[in-house]
Amino acid sequence: MNQNASHFGEPATTFLKPHSGQGPVDLGRVVQAVARPGAPRPLRVDVAGGGPVGLIFACTLRSMLGDKVKIRVFDRRWMRRDGRIAWQGTAEGNNRREQVVTLQSNVWGQLPMLVRRRLFTPGNYSEMWPLGPDSPTHRGRPRNIKVRWIEDCLLEMAQDFYGIELVPEPYAQPKSWDGLDVLAICDGARSKTREDLKEAFGPSSRDLYSVGGTPLDETVLGIRIKGKVPDEHTVPLTVCQNRFLFNSLGGGFINMRLTAEEASEVLAYGENGPVPCIGKFGCTMRPDGDKFVCDRHRSVFKPSVDKLSFLWPRIADGVKFFGATMGDIVGITSFKLGMQQNPKFTAQLAPSTYAFLLGDAANSLHFWPGRGLNTGVKSVQSLAANLASRWAGRAFRAADFAPHEGLMQQLQYREKSRAWTTMLIPDENGLPRGIEDRIRAGLTSKEDRQALADTLYKRLLAVKSRLEGRMGALADDAWYRSRINSLDVKTLGVMVESGAWITREIGGDEVAVNIEVAPADTNASEPTRRAPSPQRPARPASRNIPVARTGPAGPRRPAGVS
Ligand SMILES: Cc1cc2nc3c(=O)[nH]c(=O)nc-3n(C[C@H](O)[C@H](O)[C@H](O)COP(=O)(O)OP(=O)(O)OC[C@H]3O[C@@H](n4cnc5c(N)ncnc54)[C@H](O)[C@@H]3O)c2cc1C
């Protein structure tokens, strides 16, 4: 049953005070309180999609507005279990995401304090990448964290602490928008809600992200391995080439960009031939003896059993490069990446109902520069601050959302330019050249092995010297030389031809969201209100809006999934 018509007349919810002090918080139970007579009516918000972005939005808005907001979040991957809302498992057809993401400190540093405390507990995050414009010294280094951990913690906090109504169903449009002020659309890159409301948001287009009239899509393999070496040691290996990217938290994903020919080998076979599995649904193939299999489809990953596979030895080389062995692989998956341009992110659905595209539903990005979730969290921090500063108990007007829409347009420009430059890397003459061309040229390179290894090593040493001093200790030069010497000549050719990370072209100022709304959270010490700086006078409270500003150029970032 879809519950879209329920709930808005219920009593307001108040937070239970958390324990003070550091470390994991006992989240306790939610306390019900009756709304004060005569108080302005609460802001009513529905959220379509309870992935990391939808849940961060809901918790952030509650932490800012407290009882002045009533929020429902819908997700089709949830179920009821023992009177609680929980994630569906593989038995229900839900493959939980295992990827490690890097959050910039401009982003994690502005999460509600209680959320930060819950997420960043020892062993559940690491600091692998260096400081940069979006992770300035005063806020700290970027942090690696698992998407699954973010989802688990926030689902728990949403129901146990923030008192958010969670609906384990796909979002469906109500018959009437009456009674709803805000619809936050957070249902991911293939957003059904955006599709259903396309007339309100206008047509998306892939034209800008096409080559010769064809939209550019890349296929990437995600090879999940157990960690063998300290996370940080692998950073120069990632940054000196563009074929493999390793993001880790004591183990993680080696991402491998493929040509179309290589992608054609990403197949799974069942008893009766090819099965739609890893190639179509991105299923994870796990080791089973000497092959890799999908439990769900009872199929086998073709390259792992095909003695003639040209892809399998290339996968093995990538694993070796990062100091691991084939025995360290715990799963292999694949995904496709492409981009589209959206005309706008804010739409009026009815006289007093506004809808907002957020997270991947707004901006689905190529993940090589590691900005998807960062951009998604910036988008929800911007909207939450905008709503909190403008809500006065009566219908919004379109003009109220100019600050947020402006920030969304800045984010789209900044992040898609960066991601597009990563997809079509300029060559030494500044001419864009797709990664597939580079990989093919590398595979047929005529250079001898020693020359290729020397070129890559020289490049790696240059990257290493730029990184030193901005992150923890790196491995010694001999270890990096041994990683390069372990590679096949074709892999060396690809790595040399793919080029080092183009840090100058994709670096520069970042779009920042400054949250200046005092939290209504239980915790009065929640430090999201920024002290007015001498250069910038404090604004009147009623005009505390998110400020989109391009950050000062901090230390130039040599690189980083950041
Ligand atoms: C390999 C890889 C590495 C990455 N690395 C980084 C990184 O280092 N840094 C970074 O910032 N980003 C990174 N990203 C991107 C990041 O993972 C995404 O940007 C982020 O997960 C998007 O979150 P979201 O909540 O917007 O969307 P999703 O995570 O897609 O969540 C959408 C939610 O909506 C639900 N849903 C869908 N349809 C409906 C419906 N009709 N009704 C109800 N619910 C619905 C889904 O069940 C899901 O829970 C990476 C991505 C990949 C693939």
UniProtKB/TrEMBL annotation:
> Composition bias, kind Low complexity: at what positions?
530-543
Residue ranges that the Swiss-Prot or TrEMBL entry lists as coiled coil: none
For the region Disordered, what residue ranges are annotated? Answer: 1-21, 519-562
Among SUPFAM superfamilies, the record links this protein to:
FAD/NAD(P)-binding domain
The organism's place on the tree of life at top rank: Bacteria
Please state what the protein is called: FHA domain-containing protein
